[in-house]
Amino acid sequence: MGRPLVDRHSVLMPGEKVPTSDDPGVTYTERDVSDETAVLQQRRTAANILCGCL
C-alpha cells in the first residue's frame, strides 16, 4: 500500500477513500485551489453583507 497523501489541510467527503501514492485519484492544480478559494471568499462576503455582519 502506498503512502497516504493527506495532511492537516485535506478534506475528505464521507465514504471517500484516503488517496495514496499508489492511487492518487483526483489531483488539483494551483489554479483549481485558488479559484475555489476566490469563490468561497465571494460567498462569505455576500453572506456577511446580507446578514449585516460587516
Structural overview:
The protein is mostly helical. The chain has a domain at 30-54. Helices cover 41% and strands 0% of the residues. It is built from 1 helix and no strands. It has one helix at residues 30-51. The protein starts with 29 loop residues before the first helix and ends with a helix. The model has no long low-confidence stretch (mean pLDDT 76).
Number of strands: 0
Shape: elongated
Number of helices: 1
- Indicate the mean pLDDT: 76
Rounded to the nearest angstrom, the radius of gyration is 16 Å
| Low-pLDDT windows of residues | none
Span of the ends, CA to CA: 49 Å
Helix-and-strand structural type: mainly alpha
- Strand proportion, as a percent range, falls in under 5%
- Share in helix: 40-55%
Strand and helix order = H
Q: Tell me the major beta sheet.
A: none
Brief characterization of the structure:
The chain is mainly α.
What structural keywords apply?
54 residues; mainly alpha; 1 helix
Per-chain topology:
Blueprint: H1 30-51
